Amino acid sequence: MNKKVTHFSLSMRILHWSMAVLLFSMVFAGLAMVSSLEPWQLALLGLHKSFGALALTLLLLRFMVRIQSPIPNLPATMPVIQVRLARLSHWLLYLLMLIIPASGLLMQYFAARPIVVFDFFTIPAAKVPQIEYFAVFREGHSLAVLLLLTVLTVHIGAALYHHFVRKDGVLKSML
Question: So where does this one cross the membrane (predicted)?
């Protein structure tokens, strides 16, 4: 007899909340970097790059865990359109969490700036800057972050709606 899954696995919950903190930190760091030319900006940029590489690694791990883990069903009382939108928004979040660090890595590659990841290893860069490609990936990186913030706002709003209005356990399944 199969036991009904009511919560995401512990590994999925840890990855979810760790990445939530990481992504919000990265967004705020990115905003701080682009609005300042203070001396600390370069140190923050180095950390931003390292944590971006970590975010990409965690995303790949999260995706593998997600594929292998049973997940709770959404409430049977949810309208079909909301179920479809929930699934679409989750896959869109995964896609954006892939596009953002990948575009950041490519932006640095085409700027001919190697990425030193926590002084542990270095991701090489192009020998010669290619400013046109750098500009494309920089713009894509910024637009993807704006889209991520939009989708996250909807995601958080939906989680709070389910918790406080519908009281159907959707948020509790990830706590």
Answer: 46-65, 91-111, 143-165
Tens-of-pLDDT digits for all 175 residues of the chain? 447 888 999 999 999 999 999 999 999 999 888 887 788 888 899 999 999 999 999 999 999 999 999 989 888 889 999 999 999 999 999 999 999 999 999 999 999 999 999 999 999 999 999 999 999 999 999 999 999 999 999 999 999 998 999 888 888 888 8
123 domain-assigned: yes
Q: Is residue 2 part of a domain?
A: no
Helix (H) or strand (E) holding 117: strand 115-117
Q: What is the CATH number of the domain that holds 61?
A: 1.20.950.20
pTM score: 0.89
**At 157, phi and psi to the nearest 5?**
-60, -40
Checking phi first, is residue 112 left (phi over 0); if not, alpha (psi -120 to 50) or beta? left
- Distance of alpha carbon 173 from alpha carbon 73, whole angstroms: 10
